[in-house]
Design goal:
mainly alpha; two-stranded antiparallel sheet; 1% strand; elongated; binds heme C
Length: 482
Amino acid sequence: MIERIPAAGASFVMRARHPDVTPARHPEPVEGCRHPSAAPFDPSTELRMLKMRLRLAYMLQQTTFLIAIVVLLIASSAAFSASNSECLMCHSARGLSKTGKEGRQVSLHVNQTQFRDSVHGGRLCVDCHIDMAEQKFPHKTAAEPVMCSRCHQMGNSEGAPQASPIDEYQDSVHGKAAAAGDFDAPRCKDCHGYHDVRSHKDPKSRTFRANIPKTCAACHSDSRITTKHNIPVKQPLKLYEKSIHGRAVTGQGLLSAAVCIDCHGFHGIKAAKDPSSTINRPHIPETCGQCHKKVLEDYKISIHGEARQAGIKDAPVCTDCHGEHTIQPASSPDSSVYPTHVVATCSKCHEDARIEKTYGLPANRLSTYIGSYHGIANKYGETTVANCATCHGAHDILPSSNPRSLVNKKNLPQTCGKCHPGASVNFAKGSVHVTPSPEKDKGVYWVRVFYTTFIIGLISSFAGYIGLDLISRWRRRGRQEH
Ligand code: HEC
Ligand code: HEC
Ligand code: HEC
Ligand code: HEC
Ligand code: HEC
Ligand code: HEC
Ligand code: HEC
Ligand code: HEC
Ligand code: HEC
Ligand code: HEC
Ligand code: HEC
């Protein structure tokens, strides 16, 4: 059944809709019919044609629209990737290279996959190589260096994040050297890479915690650089790898242990002698204390911590007792605070005449300890006897006059009692660091005098006896020979 017909054929409509009037039996052909003579006018064919034409026109209109869109899309994407693919036309070739300084071949190959997987994978080559945007290829001039900070700075319109304000790098030992034209100093790309930049959270990134020691060591294990620049520590990685922190990070994957940047910072790295450096002596306790919070609390209220606060340069900080790149657990025989090594560690200062004199510290701490039962046993490798730190504490050391001090008279029974169960007040009464004198420590003095005389006497009489015996044997032999 015909449903839609143009208005011009209104009469036909009537007829067509007339069930008993067939086109073949049409009474009078209408004027304007295309085939008046040959073919009798067939309204149904005409209608079908019209319908088809209309459909065609409709389809054509639709397709043109679609084609336009597709063409536009293709055109735009071609424009988008054209510059990257244009660049890659040459630069994806593995063999592409140029002759650099000293005649060395420098590869100009760009690894497409690596670039696509990087944080900048969606960007245009010319977003970074801005000088290349207007170039005719092949290039004539050398490329300008890429400025990462064009985007990675406060308030940039590119949405480029930053870990710290850019001037932190500019103010660092690295940034200053780079600004002075030092080729050895790290630029952004030396720590981050460039076509393969990844977020520090990505385990494949050079700035991922576990990979940082190697990233820094690219230069800091290079003896040409460390010698030329007079860097005080020549092989930090070698030392660090063996430390508790290094073994924890690289061996056990314990990412909470310290890596280079936790102690040194990353964009703001400064030399130890710079007063604003994280590793400048007075700042070291806070640097370590980021992670060792309880230790820092104890240290701060100790005599050493207070001395540091007061600006006393000789006051010990964490690294005086533990080292920095060589830190070991206290239970390791390699540690500077292992029971048999603590004595030497404290004595660096407490046996130093200048320090003793400057701060009015009592002398002979070491000699009196070495002469004691504890000291002798400690010297022979006995770890269970008392050492400086088991009596005085490690981080909470206070003068004996302080009621909170472990060696305050009141607390001694408890301190000695850790190892001498049931130690009475009497047991702990005699002073520990004794250079006995006849007035102060009468008992100890006379006992020592007695023992010394007795032992010397005993040894002399033994020697005398053996001597006399030898002489008499020699004489007897002489007599027998004659
Ligand atoms: C027709 C091939 C070709 C095209 C296309 C091309 N390059 Fe190069 N490109 C080279 C060659 C060859 C060199 C080495 C020039 C030389 O010897 O100094 C080069 C060098 C470079 C360098 C290093 C220059 C230097 O000083 O070390 C950069 C960066 C570079 N191209 C980026 C691009 C970018 C970005 C594009 C796209 C916008 C691009 N190239 C397109 C062939 C090409
Ligand atoms: C995130 C910024 C960035 C993007 C994006 C980028 N590059 Fe680079 N490109 C660099 C840096 C940085 C260098 C090292 C030289 C320098 O410091 O200027 C470099 C170096 C090059 C070199 C010299 C050879 C080399 O490896 O040292 C070529 C060639 C090059 N880029 C081509 C490209 C091409 C092609 C693209 C796009 C596929 C691209 N770059 C995208 C930052 C970028
Ligand atoms: C054209 C602007 C631009 C330039 C130039 C540029 N970046 Fe980026 N960078 C960005 C943007 C935008 C992002 C964020 C990308 C994202 O998160 O998808 C980014 C992300 C990063 C990230 C990861 C940040 C994160 O938190 O995940 C690092 C690292 C980075 N860029 C370093 C660099 C280095 C190094 C250079 C120079 C070799 C450089 N960028 C050059 C725009 C830029
Ligand atoms: C001495 C090495 C070093 C240099 C030089 C350096 N960075 Fe970084 N940067 C790092 C490290 C390491 C981190 C990761 C810090 C962290 O773990 O939070 C980082 C973080 C970043 C981040 C945050 C990205 C992220 O992964 O969250 C951006 C962006 C960044 N740096 C950009 C730059 C730019 C731009 C420059 C040059 C002006 C630069 N860096 C120079 C070592 C460096
Ligand atoms: C591209 C090479 C390079 C990389 C990578 C590098 N450094 Fe350096 N670093 C240097 C140079 C060169 C100096 C000496 C600068 C100068 O002469 O003032 C230096 C100086 C230092 C200093 C101060 C030493 C002094 O002279 O007192 C410290 C600390 C330091 N770097 C730590 C790091 C750490 C931590 C990292 C990794 C996050 C790192 N560096 C990555 C080359 C590098
Ligand atoms: C646990 C903290 C810590 C870690 C981890 C650490 N360092 Fe250090 N580093 C220090 C301290 C503290 C000093 C200062 C020593 C001094 O004053 O003599 C120092 C000194 C340095 C110096 C000499 C700086 C100067 O100005 O004297 C360099 C270079 C250095 N470290 C590089 C590294 C590198 C590279 C790593 C990673 C492999 C690393 N450090 C890991 C704490 C650390
Ligand atoms: C005067 C020397 C001295 C100073 C200063 C010092 N330590 Fe210690 N530290 C020791 C001794 C001795 C031990 C081992 C005895 C013990 O376990 O109490 C020790 C043990 C430790 C331990 C392992 C046991 C524990 O208590 O967790 C850590 C961690 C530690 N120190 C971190 C630090 C940090 C961080 C600082 C700086 C804030 C610091 N130390 C300052 C001497 C010192
Ligand atoms: C980023 C956090 C962090 C920083 C910063 C840090 N440490 Fe640690 N440190 C750790 C972790 C985590 C461990 C435990 C590693 C393990 O158990 O394997 C550790 C272990 C130690 C130990 C051994 C503890 C023991 O069991 O006897 C000592 C000592 C120590 N650190 C001293 C220091 C000193 C000194 C500094 C500063 C120069 C410092 N640490 C900086 C995280 C840190
Ligand atoms: C880097 C040098 C240094 C090291 C190492 C050191 N000390 Fe001290 N110590 C000092 C200085 C300096 C003072 C004086 C502080 C003051 O008078 O303010 C002091 C004070 C003391 C006092 C208080 C003395 C008094 O008469 O008030 C005791 C106790 C003490 N130290 C014990 C130790 C023990 C135990 C160790 C080893 C675990 C140790 N020290 C390691 C430098 C050091
Ligand atoms: C058996 C426990 C014990 C050992 C081990 C020990 N001390 Fe003491 N130390 C004391 C007592 C108790 C006092 C306070 C009374 C005195 O002077 O005899 C003291 C006093 C001191 C003082 C004087 C400041 C004050 O608090 O009165 C210093 C400094 C000191 N010791 C350092 C050391 C050093 C360094 C070592 C290791 C070589 C060491 N001590 C080993 C128990 C000990
Ligand atoms: C870290 C453990 C420890 C601490 C703390 C300690 N001692 Fe000892 N001391 C020993 C050991 C182990 C011996 C070896 C003999 C033994 O097992 O009794 C010993 C032996 C002695 C001896 C000689 C042998 C004897 O038994 O008569 C005297 C005296 C002594 N200690 C006094 C003290 C006094 C006083 C203090 C406190 C100021 C003290 N000790 C703190 C572990 C300790």
